[in-house]
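pasting for ref
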Amino acid sequence: AGRLRLRVRAGRIDFDPADESVKLETLALDYLARPGQSWQVHARHGEAPRDLSVVRLSGDVVLSGLRDREP
């Protein structure tokens, strides 16, 4: 739909050409699900395919966020 849905920041990002995966360390992930919702995830480690379609997290994973009230 052309709308930003996922923003990833990490202390270290490595690309593995063997399997085209992305390895992340000390990461913060913003998930922009819908207008009015703000979700943040912090973790020590993450791994994802090149397109970041799925991000697997491990190590002290913390989810926090805010959701507007729905009618």
